[in-house]
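PROTOCOL LOG
Step 1. Enter all chains and additional molecules of the complex.
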Amino acid sequence: MPRERTHLRYQLYRSRARKLAGINTAHLQHELERAGPTVLDLSRVRFEAISAQALNAFERWDDPHFSWGEVVGWKAREPLALDLAIWFDEVLCGLCFANPNNSRQRIRIVRLEGCPGGVHPLKNRIAPLAILVIEQYAQIIGSRFIEVQEPLEGAISIYQQLGFYFDAEGRLVKALESLVS
Amino acid sequence: MRKVIKKSPTKKSSPTTENKPIAVELTASQRHILQVIATGTETEEPSLLAGRP
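Step 2. Run joint prediction.
Step 3. Record the structure below.
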């Protein structure tokens, strides 16, 4: 398939995954409000691509671990990759880059970072929000596993809470299921 | 000849449904993730979650 068409097709898939995750969090907020008053308003969470606007907001992060500007080049080279900026209104709270392998059976989370230092509105929710979008994307493109590339020691228990485990080769993975009818 | 009254082609949405979130079919895993989103992670989330700087 021509590269340009692949680019467009996967752009649509990425967009759909982010949109579905947004619908899910909005729906969750609706459910929480029905149960009683809530502190956090999840309807203000936005899932976007890593755009120029996201990179501008990233410039205001204090002492980040990565240089996310590099992702612009990666996006051009990897048409199947998923880039994700997690916003709470106008606050950039997290950035993620995940890339499927050639067979698309496995998606690797190459980078995931929350806004460093201090407290942002989505503290302790960045990993699950990112995994929500990645799972949607995996479902769309037919992947069977999500793998965390080089997870930080202190983050492993968070991934395990989200259903990840170490496989026989010592990789931190999550097997994906099909939709429950 | 009688005048034909044309209906507006724009579909008017119901005010009761327009702000209602759309339900999406979820896997058990996605439901679990949403639960964690609602409560926050059990352990303090570090800012670096994956990848080697």
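Step 4. Note key features.
Chain B touches chain A at residues 20-30, 32-34, 36-38, 40-53 (CB under 8 Å).
Chain B has a mean pLDDT of 77.
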